[in-house]
Amino acid sequence: MEKFQQDLLQWFRENARKLPWRQTYSPYHVWISEIMLQQTQMDRAVAYFNTWISYFPDIKSITRASEEKILKLWEGLGYYSRAHNILKTARLLAKNFNGNLPEDYKSLLRLPGIGPYTAGAIMSIAFHREYPLVDANIERVFARLFNLDKQVKDKETQIFIWQKAREMIPPGCARDFNQALMELGALICIPRNPRCRICPVSSHCQALRLELVSKRPVLKNPSKTIFIEMATGVLERNSRVLIQKRKPSGVWPNLWEFPGGRLEHGETPEMALVREYNEETELAVGNLRKIITVQHSYTIYRVVLHCYFCSLLAGRDEPKLRGAQEYRWVNPAELSRYAFPAGHRKLIDHLFYSGYFS
User: What's the domain range around 167?
Assistant: First the structure.
């Protein structure tokens, strides 16, 4: 084990990526980076991290921000519960810890959005304490290193991996060792076509010795993709467009959107849009003009969103909301101030790019 530790640490010191949070290793920077890196590729996380820190240089500055601002800065990262939890945690830290993250593992676990992995990352990377962490990269590395032949997410396998992650930390080297394991999984021990020939610890890998690298880790069958077809309408009145704010529970809580919804069996997108407008806002719309169809994905869902311009027909001219908490008529130039789900943001970008909104 000592030779493995030495080989890995030496490789990391020579090959570690220059990431912004590694310049400071402040607990705040480590926390935000780890939350952003969940379900997000490194290059995108770096860009969002730099923007975030420019707006929120410390935890207390987050508490002074509106939820609207938090969500806007998070727009495009998805999994918006992470942003909500950052705001909740910042407020708790300001109230109970003078605006600082506690150097205590159990206290970290009690904060919204911080589980064993993130707590371990903060304790080891920020505070240099000997706590393990296990992410998908480390699961993959250990599954190959120890040739684990059971599903990597099985309880028994997880216990083994976490135990090994704890045992293998060299005294005084938790920060570099934990990062080195993750870096190895991100750059060398990758899911497909791993770079075994240049792996600094290949001599220690049981799966490589047994020619089973391509069969490790053992994964569960992927969840079935669920396809959703939706329609949405950009309603204009007096050079302004109607947007509504989603409810604080459910999918995409507190984000803004153009009214619309899912197609029901046998409906065309146009029929669904007219029905949804009536059900959600009690507005009668017509004169539909197709703009674009956009596609986006989240978790196991693949969404096709049909987008239209529409006009008010006879009847009420102000919405009576049934599926949202707030509405506004806004100048198109103001749309950049609001956070929208991915599909609606793609629609807005198209409208500006095409020159319809200027």
Answer: 2-215
